Amino acid sequence: MAVPRHRVEMATTPAVNEMSMAEAFEGGPMSDHTPKELDLGALRQAIQAEYAEVAKRPERGFHFHTGRKLASLVGYRDEWLEGISEASIESFAGTGNPFSMGELHSGEHVVDVGSGAGIDSLIAAKMVGSAGWVIGVDMTPAMLEKARAAAAGRTNLEFRQGYGEALPVADSWADVVISNGVLNLMPDKGAALQEMARVLKPGGRLQIGDILVQTSVPESAKRQIDLWTG
Amino acid sequence: MQTTVVAAGFVDFEITWRADVFSGAPQSSSAANFGTLGINFRARKAANQEEWLVEIARLSCALPDAADESSATTSVKDTTTDR
User: Fold this and answer.
1) What are B6-31's pLDDT values in tens digits?
2) Contact A172/A2 with Cβ under 8 angstroms?
3) Which of A48, A69, A163, B2 has its CA 20 to 30 A from that of A58?
4) What pLDDT sits at residue B78?
5) Bridge pairing between strands A174-180 and A6-9
6) Quick one: which H or E segment has residue B76?
């Protein structure tokens, strides 16, 4: 099919398997629509500032775990990290494990949305091998700089600057889209997911680590930019 | 979440893992206030329009008021564009 830009309008409360899943999209960072009065430019600036710190001063300590400790917490295997630059690992700030849902196959094309310092892109590049290709996309220059340095000499991946809601990737290019701890930072989840669908081939896989909130987040809190980053 | 993922063109949505990944972080976080968990989820882009519409229909049938036609007013807009 031509890559669709589907939209579903539901007049009733969305049915989901668990209440927590509904809550996740009712409020907070895991909302599927941009809260009213949220300044998208200011939000992106705040997120970039926070993650530039994660890139430049990972030892500082944040409101989330980072580095090898986090990688272990979310189940990254030691062999995945072999050969990955320590500079990339130390700035790892994901919330899950995209590879736990299935390793990637030789020759596959992969897009890593919000690639940060590059750890997941580098792992993906190892998995897909020289016949595959990985494109990491991130909006934060400091993260891109660190990722590109970590990928020096590798011939099957590249990093591009861009937003998750407007991926700099051709239609139907990817076999797999991965992302880790990033979707929650994008106010318009629907737009971001549609972009992921656009770049995937029909039947392509989405493997995402993210967050879920189990209690409702007040509308006023959704407008607090510091809550998006902390 | 499932609704939003499916609406974007995906099928076979599944949360495969969830865990508290914020406890013990160096700085205090608002995460605990909202019961925030780390999760993994997967889905697959529909192979074609028909498969996606079946998924939409399946999701619609799970609506609590699906039996009540007056309230189950799910509508689908296909804004497929040639690219």
Assistant:
1) 999 999 999 999 999 888 888 876 66
2) no
3) A163
4) 37
5) unpaired
6) strand B75-78
Instruction: Write down the pTM of the prediction.
Output: 0.81
Residues of B with CB below 8 A from A59's CB? none
State the DSSP string of A11-69.
SSPPP-SSHHHHHHHHSGGG-SSPPTT--HHHHHHHHHHHHHHHHH-GGG--SS--HHH
Sorted by sequence, the CB contacts under 8 Å of residue A30 that are 6+ apart come out as A24, A183, A184, A189, A210, A211, A212, A213, B1
Å from B23 to nearest chain A CA?
A: 8
Bridge partner residues of A137 (DSSP): A113, A160
Cα–Cα distance, B2 to A95 (Å, whole number): 19
- Nearest-by-CA chain A residue for B41: A208
Cβ neighbours of A28 in B, within 8 Å: 34
- Nearest Cα of chain A lies from the Cα of B65 at a distance, in angstroms, of 8
Instruction: Give the C-alpha distances (Å, rounded to integers) separating B27 from A28, A46, A92, A226, B23.
Output: 20, 17, 16, 14, 10
A182 burial type by CB count under 10 A (0-12 exposed, 13-18 middle, 19+ buried): buried
